[in-house]
Structures are given as C-alpha cells and as structure tokens.
Amino acid sequence: MSYLVLARKSRPQTFDQVVGQRSVVKTLQNSLSRNRVAHAILFSGVRGVGKTTLARLMAKAINCQAAESTRPCDECISCREIATGASLDLIEIDGASNRGIQEIRELKEKLRFLPTSSPYKIIIIDEVHMLTTEAFNALLKTLEEPPEHVHFMFATTEIHKIPITILSRCQQYELKRISAVELYDHFHKLAKSEGFEIEPAALSLIVREAGGSVRDGLSLLDQMFSFGEKTIVTQDVIEVLGLVGSELLMQVTTGLLNQKYEDVLQPLDQIFDYGLDIKRFLADLMAHFRSLLLCKIEGCINLIDLPPEELIEFQKLAENYSPETLHQKLNLLMTTAEKINYSNQPRLTLETSFLSIIEADNITNVSTLLGKLDEVLQELPDQIPVSPVKSIPSTSPKIEITKAKSPGEYVPVKGVEETVLKDSPPDKNEARLSGKTVENDTVRADDIHAVAIKPHAKDVRKDWLDFIAYIKNRKVWMAQVLQRADSFKQEKEELHLTYSDPTNCTVLRQKDNQRLLTEFTLDFFQKPLKIRFIVPEVDNSPGNSKSELSPHRKRQELANDPLVIMAAEVFNGQVGDIRVGPRSRQD
Ligand SMILES: [Zn+2]
What we know:
This protein is an alpha/beta fold. It has 4 domains: about 5-175, Rossmann fold; about 180-240, Orthogonal Bundle (Helicase, Ruva Protein, domain 3); about 245-360, Zinc Finger, Delta Prime, domain 3 (Up-down Bundle), CATH 1.20.272.10; about 410-570, no CATH class. It is built from 25 helices and 12 strands. The strands form 3 sheets. The chain has a 5-stranded parallel sheet with strand order 2-3-4-1-5, with helices on one face. A 5-stranded mixed sheet has the order 8-9-12-11-10, covered by helices on one side. A two-stranded parallel sheet has the order 6-7. Helix 16 runs antiparallel to helix 17 (about 345-360). The chain starts with 5 loop residues before the first helix and ends in a 16-residue tail after the last helix. The structure holds zinc ion (ZN).
C-alpha cells in the first residue's frame, strides 16, 4: 500500500481549505470575480505557509470551466487534471534546479504554442530567486509583453534576491506565518479525520515546533502518526520528536525568575539525559521570556502568538516581575545561547550561565534608584568626601597635618605641581581635632597605622594590577582613578602617581580620599608610602576657559565630576560611556 505523506494528502484543493492567509485569499478571489488577474503574480513568505498551494489554486481557478470563477469546482476536466498533476497547460518549474538561461529559453519556446485543453497556460516557478541573472533577463522580456494566453505564478522564500525589474512587473502577495490558533485547529481536524486522538498539550507542542509553517507541522504529525498509537499523549511527542515539554520549560522559566536553583538544575539534568536539542530548548526558553516581557508592555499583547489559555498563564506569571527584570534575564539568555555555540562543555556552560541568571538580582526601576541617590546625597555634608572617612578617635593623635603656605596653594616645581607630604609638629594635630579650620591638609601614611613592616612586602611595580584589583573590591571609583594615572612608581618611601590631566585625580587628591588611599596602600603593600601626585601646572590662560574645552577634556571633567563618582560609588557601578554635545534626540 502506497503511503501518501500528510503534506500532499491534505493539500488544499479549494480556497476554503487554505489554512490562514484570509486577506490574501480574499484579494485573489476578488481579482478572479472581476476578471482582473495579473499576468504575473509573486507569492513570498517562509516555507510551508501556502505559496505554491495558492499558486496551484489560482491556476485551477483561472482555467476552471465551471460558471463560478472565484472558487475552482474541483470537478471539471481542467480542475481534475491539475489536481492529479496531469495537466499539460500547467507547467511547474523548480527554480533551484532549473536556474539557467537555457531552461528559460526552453520555457519561452513552449509558451509560443496555445494551451491544449484550457483557456490559459500557467507557469509556476518555485524558488524563483534561485534563477541566474541571465535567466531573469531572459524572463524579463516575456514579462514585459506577456502573451495573452499565459499566466505566471512565482513563489519565493527570499524576495530580496529578486531583481527589482522583475518585482515591478509582478503583483506581489506576502504570506504570513500561520498563527498558533489556526494551526491548532487545522491539525486537530486533520488528526480526527485520520482517526487519531491527540492530547491538547501534545498538539500545542507540535504547533509550537511548527513555528507557523503548515508543512513543518504536518511532517511532525506524520512522525507521530507513524509512531503507531491511536491516542497520542504529550510524553510520546516529547520522546518521538526529542522536544522539551511545556511543563519542563515553564518550570525552568519560573525557576530562573524565582531564584529556585533546584527548579532550574533538575530539568537540565533531564534534558541532557534524554539528549534533547539544547539550542532548541534555549530558543523556546527565550520565547517564553519574550512573551512575558510583551505581557508587560502596553499595547503589545497582540504580538504574542499563543493559544488563549496559555496566554492567560503568561500574563499571570508576568504580573510578579518588573519589565526590567524580564528584559535583563532575556538578555542573559541570549548571551547564553551565543556562548553555547562555541562551548565544548555545553552542560557546564548552561549550568553556570543559568546560575548567573538566577543570581542576577531583580532590577529596581531607575526612578526608584534616583530617589535612593537623592536620599544618600541629602545625608552627606556639603563638601563631597566621596569615601566616608572612618572616625578618628580623638585620644590617639594619629594624623598629622601640615599647613601649606596659603590656603589651597600647592608648591610648583619646574612646571610640575607637587603635593608634598611633610612632617609637622604634633601640636598642629590639635588644630584639626579641635575643629579649627585647617586648609590643604596632608596626611602621613605611617601615622595612620602603626603596623610593623613585614619582610616580604609586595612590590609597587610588580603587584600594581593586584593592587588595583584590591582597591576595586573596596572603592570602585578609586580603582578607576588609579587606572587613569599615566604612570606610577615607588620613589623611596613615596608612591608617585603622574597624571598629565589634573582633572583625572581631583577627587582622589581630596584629603580624605588621599588618606584612604594611603591606608589601602599600607594594607596592601605592607609598608607606609606617602602618596605624591605629579601633575602639570594648571593653565589658567583665557583661551582655556571651560566653555572652549575640547570634547575629550569635557568628557574627562564629566567623568571626574564628584556627582558622577558618587553615583558610581552608590551603585557600585562604573562609567561606561560619556557623550558630549547637543542632545540629538528630544524626549
Ligand atoms: Zn473546475
């Protein structure tokens, strides 16, 4: 007994049987009833959405001998010949295997003769984008002046590959993917007519896998029908087609959102045990997060292609999370999908990536964060001590202060401005601690902690990167400022930091921050080092006024703006990009 695959067996023979594409069908039928069928029609769309089906139906309708032209009768000689593939007046060409100029010349030769038994000769060229340029050119002449007795029907999955000269001579129809609901109904009826019973969840799975293509769905159904059971249950579909079940997918989805490690890692074990397609699984998971995200975006619910009951389930779940959280987790999933492509340890990659997604905190709205920043700023004193200074016990005179020559003045040496940390008499200390005004304080490292110097202290030059990392764990902004230094070196008991642009270290040079850096330096290198900033003399000439700063300088200034540094500190973040210039977009 010969077996006819479902896709061929169930091919629509009338317009009413076409799945989806209602508006295209209606337009085509209108053109038939008004006798205004174009001589060249182009159907485009992804595979399995009905391009050649519609072309054949049009061929039937154009040549049908019944009175009503808008629906082929499927009974007259012409209709029956076309249905059985015996019609001499319907020429079907596969553009992929007949793509050269020779084939088109042969075709044109055939067109010179009148149709044998029908009013028209119909030429269907499938995958027409595969034709060569010469073949297209040869075809173009015919399209410009088509013989009265000829109709062309083209089908393509890649409309962008067709020359504009050809496109402009065709009436174009873009076919959409078939919606999940339409596919579900269609497959449901088909299964019934074939004598099969399918569980709704099982059918939903097949619909999901079909991805809007009737043909893909039908070949999956074919596989299930040949599985042998008259009642098809979800587990069968999962096993036969190697899919990840909806339940499992939902479990992973909620697990990632609710930070339940077990709900994420256990299903993974199952997925690997059964050898299921990981990329497919990730794609399905991303589709879940996309649907959840769309649930949160006003006016976008129609973009979710899900059966109604599943949609309600998604809407309920989405209620518990902010769009930002869903967006972030979806982004992380996308990164994971990329990583999997290159990983030779897919399981490990997936597990660690999923752990990161679980651990990615739920995101708070930006306005809430800004509110938080405001609160923090209000609690601070007027001057910005970026890092809150530890309280200094008044009983232990640990900080010595040197008063500079005049307030705010540094001593320039050979065009280089240096902050010199000097020893000072102990009584100055009292001035600070008793609250008297002292400007331009400098700090002595070895006075902050009386720590014994260890024999195997770290080396400034060798361990600089470790030092930066050490600081980064404590003060992210400070590590960034240190990284901006043009050079660093240890000179005897001093740590020299050279900045060609003084604005890069303005904040770090504030006494409290300098003190903190000195502490960190002592803790890390296990030796007291005075911090010395080496910066060029500040140019105060009129040409250098703030309004004329170069974009580069402006960016640097912005990066060093105390508020920016403060924000980076509060959020434990770092500045990614600074854009200077007029706002290109008004909100
Ligand atoms: Zn007919």
